[in-house]
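Quick one before lunch.
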Amino acid sequence: SIDAARLLERLRELGQIGRDDNGMLVRLAGSDADKAGRDAFVAWIRSAGLEVAVDRIGNIFGIWKDHKNADDAPVLLGSHIDTVINAGIYDGCYGVLSGLAVIEALKAAGFVPARPIAVAAFTNEEGVRYAPDMMGSLVYAGGLPVEEALATAGTDGTMLGAELERIGYAGSEEPGFLKPYAYVELHIEQGPVLEREGVPIGAVENLQGISWQRITVEDEANHAGTTPMSMRRDAGHAAARVVTFLRDRARNANTPTVATVGCMSFEPNAINVIPSRATFTVDLRDPDEGRLQAEEAALASYLKGLAATEEVTISVERLARFEPVAFDRRIVELVEDAARKRGLASKRMTSGAGHDAQMIARVAPSAMIFVPSTGGISHNPHEHTPEADLVAGANILLDVVTRLAAE
Amino acid sequence: SIDAARLLERLRELGQIGRDDNGMLVRLAGSDADKAGRDAFVAWIRSAGLEVAVDRIGNIFGIWKDHKNADDAPVLLGSHIDTVINAGIYDGCYGVLSGLAVIEALKAAGFVPARPIAVAAFTNEEGVRYAPDMMGSLVYAGGLPVEEALATAGTDGTMLGAELERIGYAGSEEPGFLKPYAYVELHIEQGPVLEREGVPIGAVENLQGISWQRITVEDEANHAGTTPMSMRRDAGHAAARVVTFLRDRARNANTPTVATVGCMSFEPNAINVIPSRATFTVDLRDPDEGRLQAEEAALASYLKGLAATEEVTISVERLARFEPVAFDRRIVELVEDAARKRGLASKRMTSGAGHDAQMIARVAPSAMIFVPSTGGISHNPHEHTPEADLVAGANILLDVVTRLAAE
Ligand SMILES: NC(=O)NCCC(=O)O
Ligand SMILES: NC(=O)NCCC(=O)O
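Model of the N-(aminocarbonyl)-beta-alanine complex:
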């Protein structure tokens, strides 16, 4: 079994890095807080006696190999340590620190793996500062040229490449330098399913498709007091229509489609001026690619109609688009088998969130293990998973890795 | 007649003061740009040979009096020189500079007024940085204690009093130190009526009531990918519902009510996080006090229902509330009479915008003169009034002042 006390202590410690003035956890990719989190992780990798490697997109690897198996494809574990704004302490960090805990447990037990085992912290999984999300693993899997990723402009006008240089994590390895034999990612569910059903282990067999767009509505600003309702072309109102359209459509459909408007801003943003511009984001997800395309088409046609009836100009920019992914059936079965042997119930399920495993699945057999999230809450300071579940999940990861690393 | 060339030249000159990096005019109350605009106005007052006075709320007065009439109540002209964000060059400035032009014309013509004539630039009429709007004239009229106004916190966290100190316009006169015999404010219409009807002069007989509120919706942030639509409590969506409610209600009513949501912000404002907080402003206006109250009540009851159905917390803060105002009937007739004598059509009308005259009407007989706004556009860089209309309006002001100052 893994060293539960040390895992929980490190989770708490990493969770204190990047607190803002209000005590909120904000460790955005490429920020000073991200650097501090990375430094802590690298120190733990070193204290575990592993080799440290950093690639050009800033992904960090802790690699356990010996001279006999050094050239074999490694079993890769991992996730990310960047966070959203006002984050919880488990999202991503739990998978990274558990991966390290698994390697430490195997080393301590004198286990002799047939191939290297490595733990990764991928850059910018959250995509909050730089879109798209899962960027480090996407680049790693060859889905985005590293130069293009490094040139991504952030919400604050910074460039990811420059920020990685600044914080000392623009590494020298070529992304993809380690070709994994298999990839396993342990993560909190971030949704309500496991808790509601009282099941401690999720054997994640697929992951829904993700479509991110930024929409801008433009028209003519005018005076809030003197412009009759009939003469208004109101960008803010048009944006609000899109929000209610998406919500009503997704809520009334009998499908798992989710639609979210997370960012919104008005210009000039003055109390007595009819907005001349509204900019907002749309996050659409569905486990079925056909249905996701249908939702995107429905939004596009709604926008077209709205532009005509409201006499506004609407432009759409694609920020991210990932098809649904099916994970490796054999690894999913290893997860179920490990749970069974430890006397824990497990459940095959779909991931609602995007994860690095979704990208690595392009280049290696991959799967994920979920543990429950209290109240289904994530991307929120109240994100929580009971300690017993955290420890159980890490031990399932240990068991699965023990099997894969022996092959 | 007034010196048309000089008036137009000063309008252009003042309109260049406070241009931002994008060439947009932004001269918010108490800012460095406001200081520069005030300095220019004060220099023009001095070059006209008038006495300069500044009161504690920063209102600037240029006073023409001689030893014989020094103690009589003055005819007061004026408006404001602060602007909205991305403003036009006429809103406010036109009334202030025309007021000065009228005094200069009377002086040049050797006119001997029976009472002093003064021109005022009132502080923070727009209310963009510090609510409420018309603050300088409101304080002047005794509607808001000066200490309270000076302690107003701005949208950027600054305090108006500190900003006035900083820019050197925290004057020493007690607000209200000049008790006007009458107040006349010349302004662009900022709406479409005069242009549409081809009438050059508006004789403004009343001004609609204004209700400003800031509304905050709060709930629990959660993950955009994992939270089923049925389990969401989405502050952003609730805010959007209010926007569409206000628009539909005002548009479908057969009344002049106008409703605007000009400011909107989401928190944490991240693409994959369901908003935990949405803050927005509501600007409601109606010329009829009973109807304005009914609209406020309808909004309050909608918010109550929304809080219940969406399971969100909604709080409301009042930023400004002014009842409709009826102007002095005799001055309105003087405006119509002056137009008739100059062979210009005029029209009695309601002001859709709030103005300093609305406040000064509490302490002195007041009225306003409007000139057309091209396309009805204001609070926008494209705000425009043809030069002939600008000059005609200033000459009507001259004629009305000539009558009042002889009394
Ligand atoms: N796991 C997670 O929160 N990933 C961020 C990408 C997403 O929005 O799903
Ligand atoms: N005239 C003018 O734009 N005043 C600002 C106050 C208002 O919003 O009506």
